[in-house]
């Protein structure tokens, strides 16, 4: 039991879980558009996102993780370095256009994390903008890049899916925003800090309804897409409704982040 707890803890801490959730959104895009995504893309994104998330968490935002022991930090550093190398190896096997989208996502991530002003002020310091930048990066990597070079990328349905993906990631981030509303500096003015917990929950339900209804704007929704997105909207609304400032440590970091994995499994079940 202790071994399982340790493995699980590092599965979450080392950003493997969040990287798999990003991969699940790529799989969701592939299933919705019935398009094949290369294994090289999945692997480049999986390893690259592990390296990127760990760099931000344990490098640029290390103050949040002071409790990690020296050996634990070394483990994360070694894992991140190996992941970066593997990510680059698989990335060079992809078309140059995909490289550009990776670079664009990396540039936006840098704006999010790297201080732009003295005192450590970066775009993460501006609550609403922080959420939108993360949602944009995830949309680039989980919708635009997988469809690169395909006719679907220029379709109306791809635009609707991109809009929905931004809303989905926006909702995924709100439980984290609620969890951190006391520890985040007041000047950040995150969504819960700005509007309060109750209003944030109302906003979340409104966005969840919009997310589900937007499927009706598509010319050719996939089999099971309506059902799955309605279920996702309901689950997202409920997870935010029950999110509190003193939530369990894995409430957002495991259960909420795992929603894309469940959604992909549900969509594939409907289709097959």
Overview of the structural elements:
The structure is a single chain. The chain has 272 residues and is mainly α. It has one domain (2-271). The chain contains twelve helices and no strands. The chain has helices at residues 2-13, 16-33, 39-60, 70-91, 96-113, 127-144, 156-179, 191-195, 197-213, 225-241, 249-256, 259-271.
Query: What integer is the average pLDDT?
Result: 88
Largest sheet: none
List unreliable stretches of 5+ residues.
Answer: none
Helix/strand/pairing class, anyone? Answer: mainly alpha
Count of helix runs: 12
Strands, total number = 0
Write the layout of secondary structure elements.
Blueprint: H1 2-13, H2 16-33, H3 39-60, H4 70-91, H5 96-113, H6 127-144, H7 156-179, H8 191-195, H9 197-213, H10 225-241, H11 249-256, H12 259-271
Compact overview of the structure:
The protein has 272 residues and is mostly helical.
Which tags fit this structure?
272 residues, mainly alpha, 12 helices
């Amino acid at each position: 039991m202790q071994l399982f707890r340790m493995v699980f803890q590092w599965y979450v801490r080392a950003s493997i879980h969040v990287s798999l959730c990003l991969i699940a959104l790529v799989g969701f895009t592939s299933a919705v558009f019935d398009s094949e995504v290369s294994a090289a893309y999945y692997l480049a994104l999986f390893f690259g996102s592990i390296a990127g998330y760990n760099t931000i968490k344990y490098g640029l935002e290390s103050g949040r993780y002071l409790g990690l022991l020296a050996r634990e930090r070394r483990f994360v550093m070694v894992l991140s370095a190996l992941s970066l190398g593997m990510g680059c190896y698989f990335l060079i096997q992809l078309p140059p256009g995909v490289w550009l989208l990776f670079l664009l996502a990396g540039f936006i991530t840098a704006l999010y994390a790297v201080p732009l002003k003295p005192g450590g002020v970066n775009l993460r310091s501006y609550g609403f903008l922080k959420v939108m930048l993360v949602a944009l990066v995830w949309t680039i990597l989980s919708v635009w890049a997988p469809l690169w070079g395909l006719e679907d990328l220029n379709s109306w349905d791809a635009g609707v899916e991109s809009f929905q993906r931004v809303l989905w990631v926006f909702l995924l981030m709100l439980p984290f925003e609620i969890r951190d509303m006391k520890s985040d500096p007041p000047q950040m003015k995150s969504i819960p800090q700005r509007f309060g917990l109750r209003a944030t929950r109302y906003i979340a339900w409104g966005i969840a309804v919009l997310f589900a209804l937007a499927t009706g704007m598509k010319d050719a929704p996939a089999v099971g897409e309506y059902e799955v997105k309605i279920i996702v909207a309901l689950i997202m609304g409920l997870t935010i409704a029950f999110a509190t400032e003193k939530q369990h440590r894995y409430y957002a970091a495991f259960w909420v982040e795992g929603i894309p994995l469940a959604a992909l499994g549900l969509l594939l079940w409907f289709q097959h």
